[in-house]
Design goal:
Helix content: 25-40%
CATH architecture of the largest domain: Alpha-Beta Barrel
Number of domains: 2
Number of strands: 17
Largest sheet: 8 strands, parallel, barrel
CATH topology of the largest domain: TIM Barrel
Strand order of the largest sheet: 3-4-8-9-10-11-14-15
Bound molecules: flavin mononucleotide
Low-confidence stretches: 281-286
CATH class of the largest domain: Alpha Beta
Strand content: 15-25%
Shape: globular
Radius of gyration: 21 Å
Mean pLDDT: 88
Structural class: alpha/beta
Order of helices and strands: EEEHEEEHEHEHEHEHEEEHEHEHHHEHHE
Length: 342
């Protein structure tokens, strides 16, 4: 499949994380079947807040605490890592940049430096804005920033979204800025757990609970023409399939690889390739049926091409043969098919 203008060898992308912060890790991702690699985020900004990285795993997920300087690579380091990764791995290498301002200058400096180093595309990481929406002119500043970066770079850019921007707003902003690719979904900022004395005040939480949020963002972005690199809570081929059915082009993984090793790329890709069409249906069957609203139908035909049960074209008000997978409704951009609990 094609993503960011490149023909990829598989569906799985190595997400930006410690698994992509050194040359040996990048090579391990590539050797174990990642189809593209998003490098650990980098910045020309330094805060001098060096802290150790602390992690903690419990039944809720993977808690992590770290300072900006410890977490975010200096730009020079990312430049070298980009050059070496491009030379030594034959797959798209996507450095990730982050800045602490909505003014374009620093972002452009970072992007242009990494573009010159041979980057295939650039991810724009907005994770360090904890409270984006409290700025009244956030929408217009964000749109101008994205437009400015896009105008001044030759390679594709891919903003990374976290839940600090609600899905509908995020898709509106990216469409308004003419963005073609999106990276979903960054981890979630949380206060420290009440029963832990080990960790600081503000933490990131990663875990399989994120998957349903990832689905919702994927579903919302799939209504636009933006191509999606979806992730967050993905641990299995069933998850990959679910996101692809919802409209993602590729799927990114971090925590599953950090916890269970680089071989997870090949294993999940292999499981995904061997999933039978029946497995696809089982993942999302519920007691619901597709209802058709002909007045909204534009006759684009996409639902007919993809419908598993081949009944969409026979839908009247509802259809007894419908298996309730919801694929047709998620594909329909004009609101002509809705899933109703029966
Ligand atoms: C320890 C750790 C560090 C991370 N650092 C970054 C980062 O620098 N830049 C970024 O865009 N995402 C970063 N992420 C977020 C992941 O790329 C991913 O969006 C998130 O973990 C959700 O996916 P997952 O459930 O597969 O882990 C990090 C994740 C982890 C676990």
């Amino acid at each position: 499949m094609k993503f960011l203008g490149y023909e990829l060898t598989g569906h799985l992308v190595a997400a930006s994380s410690p698994a992509t912060e050194s040359l040996s890790n990048v090579k391990a991702c590539a050797a174990n079947g990642a189809a593209a690699i998003i490098l650990k985020s980098a910045s020309s900004t330094r805060l001098h807040d060096e802290k150790t990285r602390r992690c903690y795993i419990d039944e809720h997920g993977f808690w992590a605490e770290s300072g900006f300087d410890r977490e975010i690579m200096p730009l020079e380091q990312a430049l070298l890592l980009t050059k070496q990764s491009v030379e030594q791995c034959n797959i798209p290498i996507i450095p990730s940049v982050t800045e602490l301002t909505l003014e374009p200058d620093k972002w452009l400096e970072d992007c242009q430096t990494l573009e010159k180093a041979g980057a295939s595309a650039i991810q724009l990481d907005f994770f360090y804005f904890h409270n984006l929406l409290c700025d009244n002119s956030f929408n217009s500043k964000f749109i101008s920033l994205l437009k400015e970066i896009k105008r001044n770079t030759m390679i594709p850019i891919m903003p990374k979204i976290s839940i600090s921007i609600p899905a509908e707003l995020a898709s509106y902003l990216l469409v308004s800025a003419g963005i073609e690719y999106v990276s979903l979904l960054d981890s979630i900022h949380v206060p420290k757990p009440y029963n832990s004395y080990l960790l600081g005040e503000s933490l990131s939480l990663f875990g399989s609970f994120m998957f349903q949020i990832t689905r919702q963002y994927t579903y919302v972005f799939a209504k636009t023409d933006i191509k999606i690199c979806a992730g967050g809570g993905v641990t299995s081929a069933t998850h990959v399939q679910d996101l692809i059915l919802l409209g993602a082009s590729v799927v990114q993984i971090a925590t599953e690889v950090l916890l269970n090793g680089f071989s997870r790329f090949n294993q999940i890709e292999k499981d995904f390739a061997t999933m039978a069409p029946e497995d696809m249906r089982i993942t999302s069957i519920r007691k619901r049926k597709a209802f058709f609203y002909p007045e909204n139908c534009t006759n684009c035909g996409k639902c007919r091409e993809q419908c598993f049960c081949s009944v969409v074209h026979e839908l009247e008000e509802t259809n007894e043969k419908c298996e309730g997978c919801g694929l047709c409704a998620s594909i329909c951009k004009s609101g002509a098919i809705k899933m109703i609990e029966t």
